[in-house]
Amino acid sequence: MSGQTDPLPRFACPDWWGKIQNGETPMAEVPLNEEKAAKVLAFFNRLRLPDVSGNPKMAVACGDWFKDLLCAFMASEDPQTGREIVWELLCMIPKKNSKSTYVAALALTALYMEEAPNRQMLLVGPSQNISERLFSQAQGMINLDQQLKDIFKVQEHLKTITRRKTGTALDVKTFDTSIVTGEIPVLTIIDELHELGKKAKAAKVMQQIRGGGITMQRGKVLFITTQSDEAPAGIWKSELKKARDIRDGKGGKSPIMLPVLYEFPDELQRNKAFWQDRENWRLVLPNLGLSIDEQALQDDYDNNGRVSKETEQIWASQHLNIEIGVGLGSAAWSGAIHWEGAVCEGLTLDSLMEESEVCTIGVDWGGADDLAALAVIGRRRSDKAWLLWAKAWARPSVFTQREQIAPRLRDFEADGHLSVVQTGEDQAAEAAAICAQIWSAGLLPEASGIGLDSAGIALLFDALNDLGMGEPLVQAVKQGWALQTAITTMPLKLESKRLLHGNQPLLNWAVGNAKQELVRNNYMVTKEASGAAKIDPLMAAFDAAMLMFLNPQPNDNNVKMAGFFASLEA
């Protein structure tokens, strides 16, 4: 019939931004068991805030936004089958919206509503301080109500609260790899999920917790978190993407996760003038006037958030849920501010080679506990603009010795921009093969086409020589102050769109990590200045740029090498 439209996928909420602007909770309509929802609200509303003067009840102290997600999470019901449909919920809400207090109250409500005997529930914080606060809030609510003391048994030394009638226990824990010890929880609540993106084995633990979702006694999971104070990584990156996809109708027909995301649309997150306008802050702060004092928030921004570009971005990530992409701190590499505006969508190594008249390659090598990186710059045939692509390698030891960045490296591996290899020889062979691919296409100059940081590149140098690529094609590139031409000129090329990149997360990360310092009269970006953060792909790009500044010309004689490689493959 004309005018008839297909029903939206479950939990899709295409008008989420309109709802936020109208002061509504940004989530899809969820069918409820009204009787159960009323019982959930009645218990929740009687709980009192233990750390606020007068100990007001949740009935008046809790924002309606949280009560909406409370009922959806605990009382959803498919009208046809009578079964629950919300088994997971992810709420992203800025700081100071009382999320930790509210989820402590939700946990007590769930414990009261659970009739199954002798089950386990988990309320999890990413650190001991947060988990202790969660327990303290729940315990405080019980201590304010004699009837609740009769309903619940509190064991402070174990951080456990048990419903006396059923024996089902709520354990408040700090996240670690041993958090699940066999029994599948009927409910798991995780506060500050974004912090788990920094933990190497978080995904494995979450898989164990979610194992309860396929049993007859299904387990439910609730995540509540602020945005990360650095670019999303690991489990936080994957869960946030999943939630956004579901919200936008791209998560399949029957997802089990309900997303409730207080954030600005992507284009407005990138519009600094929009989110700096204090009139727009209220849109993502549903507890403004309850737990958040508007004047205090403005004073904090003026006195702390605006100290530098870096502190402003961190402040915005925590108080407005602005997602951090590329770091723009006061000590950041000067090219970072222009990076996001210089994207060539869909750029790959193959398309770079196809569009370029000549290429240069830079390599920054690393040891067993470090990354190795290769960057290719192609000078585009049509307009002489530079095109940049990068690849990195890691050995298994990197993931154990640098656990903090391991989840992020796994993301890059999944993107195809980082390869995990077993040995230095494997690493060198793969890098040399990329060089040979470009060389055999006739895209490298006769001399100074491959630039190497001289440290630790013996294996790669040998691998290049074995394929016929030695001096003068391969050249050492001086480091430190000698890279100043690349460090200071590449930002100008980015600003004018004369240097473009393919928006690779690997390169974005390296650019965000890079710190610039003035040493005497030279601007330098070094691994020492950037600390533990990895910048290897950017350093490789500097090496490639130093060779491209020599205005190289393609060496057509290299095309004949294609026959040589063809014979090797035969």
Sheet with the most strands: spatial strand order = 3-4-5-2-6-7-1-8
Give the amount of beta strand, in percent.
15-25%
In CATH's first tier, which class of the largest domain applies? Alpha Beta
Number of strands: 17
The radius of gyration computed from the alpha-carbon positions, rounded to a whole number of angstroms, is 28 Å
Helix content bin: 40-55%
Q: According to CATH, what is the topology of the largest domain?
A: Rossmann fold
Characterize the biggest β-sheet. Answer: 8 strands, mixed
Number of helices: 25
Overall pLDDT level: 88
**Superfamily (CATH H level) name of the largest domain:** P-loop containing nucleotide triphosphate hydrolases
Distance between the termini: 60 Å
Count of discrete structural domains: 2
Gross CATH architecture of the largest domain: 3-Layer(aba) Sandwich
The structural class is alpha/beta
Outline: elongated
Account of the protein in words:
There is one protein chain. It is built from 25 helices and 17 strands. It is an alpha/beta fold and 570 residues long. It folds into 2 domains: 253 residues, Rossmann fold; 234 residues, Nucleotidyltransferase, domain 5 (2-Layer Sandwich). The strands form 3 sheets. The chain has an 8-stranded mixed beta sheet with strand order 3-4-5-2-6-7-1-8, sandwiched between helices. Strands 9, 10, 11, 12, 13, 14 and 15 form a 7-stranded mixed beta sheet that branches. A two-stranded antiparallel ribbon has the order 16-17.
